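Model it.
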Amino acid sequence: MIDEILELSIVEPNYPEQLCQLLVDQLGCTSSAIQSADGVRWLVLGQAGDKSLPPEDTLQSALDGIEIQFSDGWACIPNSQQLANGKQQQVLSLECDDPQRVGAMINDIRDPLFTAISSWSQYKQLTDRALRAETILAIAAQWHGIKETDDLVTEIVKASTTLLGAERASLFLWDQDNHELVARPALGVEGGELRVPEDAGVVGEVVRTGDSLRVDEIEGAGQINRDVDSELDFVTRNLICCPLKNEANEILGALQVLNKQDGIFTSDDLAVLEELASHIMSALQTTRQIEQLISSRSVIAAEAAQELDLIGDSPQMVALKSTIHRIADTDLSILILGENGTGKEVVSQLIHYQSGRSEEPLVAVNCAALTETLLESELFGHVRGAFTDAHTDHVGKFELATNGTLLLDEIGDMSLAGQAKLLRVLEAKEVVRVGGSTPIRIDTRVIAATNQDLAEKVRDKTFREDLFFRLNVVTLEVPALRLRGEDIVLLAEHFLGELSVKARRNIPRLKASARKRLLAHTWPGNVRELRNVVERLVYLTDGDTVEADDLDFVVAPGGSGPQVSLELSLNDATREFQMQYIQAQIKRLGGNMTEVAKHLGVHRSNLYRKLHQLGFDVSEE
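Modeled.
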């Protein structure tokens, strides 16, 4: 049975249910449950069978020691290995005709069994923490632009309710002069504001002691202020509440969330509330205006900047990083060129986070995805009633990015009419929303990116020359991966380390044969393709090393002819085919360029000119 247990994947969200079902099937039990002690509460992590639960006194007896406890047909097996945080401990319970026999069988495999359960618990905590951090950052982004305290408080309360799956939430501010706590918003109260004595109920205790509390009907029900329930025509079943403290550790109020929609609040829920409270405090200190919210962005910007890097030591990448360092902290317009997948967006992020605008928004727009009808509204915004579906005012991307950076990705795909409107905004440094008449001043740095040859598009009259010169103050060209030599191996090793950590496995080592295979491939999809290849290796192989054979799916041994990614545009695919085809002919003819030119049906000088256009550093000598 231990083999079947080990085959279960601990990264599955329903791993405890799968394990319980396996035990029911293998041991012939009528019920199986995995429970975790959370204070005086018992949380069900998973169950199977008829889904009955053992007596709580038997569970508690098992929790108090390491011996299996038997009662009323149940065998309750405790986990003798505490979780890493030392706060929770699991108990596996099995209901059957012969609990003594089943208990003895489980006791033989208790350690690996609970190691798997504990690993799942730790993995779930990590994933929940990551999701929580991502959600909180998304919530903070939504607060951008809110200038009124009441509007900000309303958004905080909505976010708390949604994040914790609760029915209601309130933010209490401490009016110390009047010895009152002021709740906002207070649904059902005239004016949306409720005032209670500063020592009343759970909130009063939290403000007085500075400690978070978790209360439900089972324990501490007397702490719930039923006078408030009566006034609001609301019944509080359970709640969590944490203090709001400023940087000087002074208590400004409390954040309270009421009635878990699915069960009861856990200690993890309280941790989420405390983490959310720590992120929102900058918006509520002193004047409680938008300037305090902006101050919290520096931490987010620093964290984002630390995760960005251009991996590579090739001369092209060293030169690119040096140029980025020189121009980042300027307001110069920048045009980033490069094939699909080379990392143009990463370059734009590095420029933003190395500039003085790093604590302000970085807003990206995919110009290829904007239709002619949507372009003005998305970039410049619209007012209510401007067109049929304009039910509310809409802030455009230029306004969202004011004081920050706007990335116009795939700028080469913008229509000529859209280019004319964009040029006017860049020259005037102000936007007028669709349907509006008031000019709005903007201070937005613009970075444009494309995989197309804009100079050629200018010659073909498909791109405005004046816009080209406006955007092309500084040009950065991100080299294709095939031109970066040993950077391919450096990137592969970087992705192996990063993705192996996510996959919770040891980092495999690239053998020499695998390195050679990686360097031999032309990488039409560039860095994006390489990352996808490494991700496949991480999840579909399990060895300690990566051999050349593990990369057969990249370039099959003995494969004939140029191979071009189907994800490329027609222009890029044509360019890629030409490069591969000429390289193959040079290799086949031993580097005899006269023979290569003859075979291709072109003059030798034209061959060198073509190689130069394709990015090869060659000379006739």
